[in-house]
Amino acid sequence: MNGHHHDHGHARQGRSLLVSIALNLGFAVAELIFGLIANSLALVADSIHDASDAVALGLSYFGLKMSERAPNQRRTFGYRKVRILTAFINAIVLAGLSVFVVRAAVLRIMSPEPVNSPILILMAVAGLLVNGAAVLLLRRDRASLNIRAAMWHLLEDFFGWVAVLVGGIIIKLTGWYVVDPILSLAVSAFVIYGAYSVFRESASILIDSTPHDISFDTVRRYIIDFAPEIEGIHDLHIWTLGEGERALMAHLVVKDANVSSFCAMLSRLECALRDNFGLNHVTLELESDVCKSGDNVCLA
């Protein structure tokens, strides 16, 4: 049943990403056309930005499809982390684009340029509708880091269009052209913060860090106290295989006895680790004091 829901969620995410890609590409073409008609460099530049967002969404879709591929002899864990890798790349691209916008905004503040406010207002309304629809499509799957990275691209555009709409109205009423770049700086700060959060989480997963919501010491103590048969633990590792899949590997020190006598305890421990810490891929190796393991095993 869990596999069925997992496959259904992947299929829904794939459809949402494809629709979002189509919306972004279509709107990028429309922006380019209206930008050329209105002789607006801002709209032409933003059409390039929207096209880059479509590329970012395409990366997310690629990561989603790759993660569905089955494990093989070369990739024994499958392609789970491809989704994390695409989220990592998306975060870097998003931050880079935002830095470019900040630079352009600073130059505009120093030397404001005339803006055709009616066309800006018209395109801002259209942009809000398009990007808002795309965000709503992806929002239900925001628990996915890959989808969340894609959403930040769309949210950047959405709040960017809010800024353009507000700026267009203020410019039309007051003629203060400097309002547009100031609002762009505020939006860029928001987007860079979101990109950093995705970058930090994806980088942590890629280097196999202990998940941020799991205490290494708590898990270690829990295992040691779980059963009287467990006399010690070492080589404990906790990491993320992919979205929704966390792994644990450890050596348990027990009394010298038949392995079969520990089967019931190991089964209970695996279930407890899954239920209490969300660790659904557990590998436990038994050893006794008379057995050497870990760093000293090759020194015998």
Summarize the structure.
The protein is mainly alpha-helical and 300 residues long. The protein has helices at residues 2-38, 41-67, 82-110, 117-139, 145-174, 179-206, 216-224, 263-277, and strands spanning 232-242, 245-253, 281-287. The chain has eight helices and three strands.
List the helices and strands and how they pair.
Layout: H1 2-38, H2 41-67, H3 82-110, H4 117-139, H5 145-174, H6 179-206, H7 216-224, E1 232-242, E2 245-253, H8 263-277, E3 281-287
Parallel strand pairs: 2-3
Antiparallel strand pairs: 1-2
Helix pairs in contact: 1-2, 1-4, 2-3, 2-5, 3-5, 3-6, 4-5, 5-6
Structure characterization notes:
The chain is mostly helical and 300 residues long. The chain folds into 2 domains: 2-206, Cation efflux protein transmembrane domain (Alpha-lytic protease prodomain-like); 216-299, Alpha-Beta Plaits, CATH 3.30.70.1350. It is 66% helix and 9% strand. It has 8 helices and 3 strands, in the order H-H-H-H-H-H-H-E-E-H-E. It has helices at residues 2-38, 41-67, 82-110, 117-139, 145-174, 179-206, 216-224, 263-277, and strands at residues 232-242, 245-253, 281-287. The chain has a 3-stranded mixed sheet. It is elongated and about 85 Å long. Mean pLDDT is 80; it is low at 1-5.
Features:
300 residues; mainly alpha; Alpha-lytic protease prodomain-like; Alpha-Beta Plaits; 2 domains; 3-stranded mixed sheet; 8 helices; 3 strands; 9% strand; disordered N terminus
